[in-house]
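4.2 Preliminary Data

To establish feasibility before requesting continued support, the project team ran the inverse folding procedure on a target of 177 residues. The structure was first converted into the token representation described in Section 3, and no sequence information of any kind was made available to the design step. The complete token record follows.
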């Protein structure tokens, strides 16, 4: 069963981030696994600088898009938020049911904590998700993606990123030439 879990998680390497395809026409965009790795690096540093629970944050980051290994990466234009949550929760439950009970409960709690957006760690992970997207959008812009399309990613993240350190980094990213 654990091997099945690992295979499912590894499949994130094969799931392209749909927004880059739809909005920027990127032929070979980053995978969800690429996104999660970048988030983990950002999360590790921010957690250490700001004294968050690093272990919880890193687990949350690694688990937050795991359901996409089964359902793919839906963008807000493709599906309602309520329907996406339902589909993701069902897929996530299937995935963690491959694990021993000793850790299944813990990973389920971390998933719920992220979805509720009430704890300091869940709130910062959500903002890191947006910040990583902005950083990737800027990279695509530098490689020739249309500025107008890239700016839509900046605008969607701007009001979501409220933590002072993340806001400072966000501003530096979008002001970069």
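Position-by-position output of the design step:
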């Amino acid at each position: 069963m654990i091997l099945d879990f690992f295979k499912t998680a590894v499949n994130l390497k094969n799931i392209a981030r749909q927004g880059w395809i739809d909005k920027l026409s990127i032929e070979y965009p980053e995978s969800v696994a690429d996104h999660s790795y970048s988030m983990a690096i950002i999360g590790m540093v921010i957690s250490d600088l700001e004294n968050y629970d690093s272990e919880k944050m890193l687990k949350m980051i690694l688990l937050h898009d795991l359901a996409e290994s089964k359902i793919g990466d839906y963008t807000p234009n493709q599906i309602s938020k309520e329907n996406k949550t339902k589909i993701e929760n069902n897929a996530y439950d299937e995935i963690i049911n491959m694990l021993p009970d000793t850790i299944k409960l813990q990973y389920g709690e971390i998933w719920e904590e992220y979805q509720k957006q009430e704890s300091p760690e869940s709130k910062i992970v959500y903002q890191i998700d947006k910040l990583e997207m902005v950083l990737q959008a800027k990279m695509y812009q530098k490689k020739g993606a249309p500025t107008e399309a890239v700016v839509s990613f900046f605008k969607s993240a701007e009001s979501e990123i409220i933590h002072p350190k993340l806001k400072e980094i966000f501003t530096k990213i979008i002001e970069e030439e």
